[in-house]
Amino acid sequence: LVVLSNAIDDKSQLVYLYLGDNRISDAGVLALANAFIRGAAPKIRMLEISDNDIGEAGVRALVDACAGGALPSLNFLAVDLGNECAQLKAVCKSRNIEIPY
């Protein structure tokens, strides 16, 4: 996932990124979130990262990315929520990003 995170940039045409059920850990989500914070993949509308091994640190990285305005086109985020779920739900709600779980 680190390689993918380094490969996408602010000119990426990705609109849907499905990474569900890939054993992605907090480290992978952190790398991805950092890429998004740098402005990578601004056209992504749907991000599917459920059914992975994402814990509190990974969810926190998503909270920070979304709260900081990363992924400006995102309107759907599928992720298994940990203890940080209230914060992620609040940030997503404020940006009209649907979380199905």
Structure description:
It is globular, with a radius of gyration of 12 Å. The two termini are 23 Å apart. It contains four helices and three strands; from the N terminus they run αβαβαβα. α2 runs parallel beside α3 (56-67) and α3 (56-67) runs parallel beside α4 (85-94). The model has no long low-confidence stretch (mean pLDDT 91). The longest helix is centred in the N-terminal third of the chain and has 12 residues, at 26-37. It has a three-stranded parallel sheet, with no helix packed on it. With 101 residues, the protein is mainly α.
- In whole angstroms, how far apart are the ends? 23 Å
Helix content: 25-40%
> What is the chain-wise order of helices and strands?
HEHEHEH
Q: What is the mean pLDDT?
A: 91
Structural class: mainly alpha
Shape: globular
Considering the chains and any ligands shown, give keywords for the structure:
101 residues, single chain, 4 helices, 3-stranded parallel sheet, 3 strands, mainly alpha
Question: Can you summarize this structure?
Answer:
The protein has helices at 2-7, 26-37, 56-67, 85-94, and strands spanning 16-18, 46-48, 76-78. With 101 residues, it is mainly α.
